[in-house]
Design brief:
Helix content is 30%, strand content 16%. It has helices at 13-24, 71-83, 110-114, 135-144, 162-174, 178-190, 216-219, 235-238, 241-244, 257-265, 273-278, 280-287, 346-354, and strands spanning 4-8, 30-37, 40-48, 194-195, 210-211, 254-255, 291-295, 300-304, 309-310, 314-318, 324-328, 333-339, 341-342.
Length: 365
């Protein structure tokens, strides 16, 4: 039996049992679970290892890359600029980022970017030769490319482009970067142990990613949207120091389960830190259902807010590989399941079921 560390208060024994079973069955090799209710953590469980060699136990403060869960925090950086009057959700991006306003993108708005309707769900073919960490060239490739569809007429999660688009807009409109706004304003205000660019002193807390099976990257429905630039799903790249200390904001936030569940626990609160950070209008805009339709990257019908997937039961965001966090609108609790073993979302779904939650993505009517 794999040892599970941490606590689960009375009434949450089923979460511990499910988590223990995932580890004992080998479906999980390293993960953290956190559940919050009424503003406090009622479950904090750690199990398995932070490295393939099984030398470093997973701890409560272990950081891991949750892939697209990162996007929510890129969204917040953009909304700070809106809050401060430097950006508008519905003004054309080209008002600020002149180079962007070409080839059918002249009227594309920040709202369309944040709701995955900007027509750039992947980097253009011309970016195939670019280095994964060449931010300047990748941003330029998006500015120069034609959208895949008329912005606002379809949707598909902007799987890798999301952070570069927001960063480009912020640089043009505010002369600051996404990283500067997030680390200078968002992270301190929310008290998050969550990093775009892991500091030197926290590198020893980062878990190494590993595939559940060698062909995992090729089985993904979203694989066609993840090929350019090459290397995002390469664990050797993801486990490197240079990647962990860079900013590829669509996917490479590094954080803990406790931090993510704590954030979601205060997500809808009118007196919480997020409400105080954004103000009542933008807080409501962030959480409001913005668009419902068939998301071509997810391959299913869903509803996007400005930074989350939403349905009648939850507000949530997950990442490829199996990590997920959500606020249950039904049961008024938050949960995060963060893993280093790249596989499907069945493990998070099992934890959710133990809480009587359902992680199935369902578009709102």
């Amino acid at each position: 039996m794999v040892q599970v560390e941490g606590f689960a208060e009375d009434g949450y024994d089923a979460v511990r049992q499910v988590f223990q079973q995932l580890l004992d069955d080998g479906r999980e090799t390293g993960a953290g679970v956190s559940v919050w209710r009424d503003g406090r953590e009622v479950v904090r469980l750690s199990g398995g290892w932070a490295d393939p060699e099984r030398r470093r136990p997973w701890r409560a403060d272990t950081l891991v890359q949750p892939y697209s869960l990162s996007k929510t925090f890129a969204t917040l950086a953009a909304l700070i600029a809106v809050r401060d009057g430097a950006l508008s959700l519905d003004e054309p991006i080209a008002t600020y980022w002149k180079e962007y306003g070409t080839r059918g993108k002249e009227r594309t708005t920040l709202r369309q970017v944040l709701t995955h309707q900007a027509g750039q769900p992947r980097f253009p073919a011309e970016a195939a030769a670019l280095d994964l960490l060449d931010d300047t060239a990748l941003r330029a490739s998006l500015a120069e490319a034609a959208p895949e569809y008329v912005p606002g007429t379809s949707l598909g999660e902007h799987a890798l482009t999301y952070g570069h688009l927001i960063d480009g807009i912020l640089r043009a409109a505010t002369d600051t970067t996404l990283q500067e706004v997030y680390n200078g304003v968002v992270r301190p205000a929310l008290g998050l142990d969550a990093w775009f660019g892991v500091p030197d002193g926290a590198l020893d807390r980062v878990a190494d990613l590993e595939y559940a099976s060698p062909d995992w990257p090729h089985q993904l429905h979203a694989a066609p949207w993840l090929r350019i630039p090459a290397g995002v799903l390469d664990t050797a790249q993801a486990n490197s120091r240079i990647w962990r200390q860079s900013v590829f904001a669509a996917v490479n936030l590094h954080t803990t389960a406790t931090a993510m569940a704590g954030f979601f626990a205060h997500l809808t609160s009118d007196d919480g830190p997020l409400h105080q950070l954004l103000g009542p209008h933008l807080h409501a805009e962030l959480l409001r259902s913005q668009v419902t339709g068939h998301d071509e990257v997810f391959g299913t019908r869903l509803t996007w807010t400005l930074g989350f997937v939403r349905d009648r039961g939850k507000i949530a965001k997950g990442g490829i590989g199996g990590s997920a966090a959500w606020w249950s609108l039904t049961h008024r609790h938050a949960c995060a399941y963060l893993t280093r073993r790249l596989d499907d979302h069945s493990r998070a779904a099992a934890i959710a079921a133990a809480l009587d939650d359902d992680l199935t993505v369902v578009g709102e009517d």
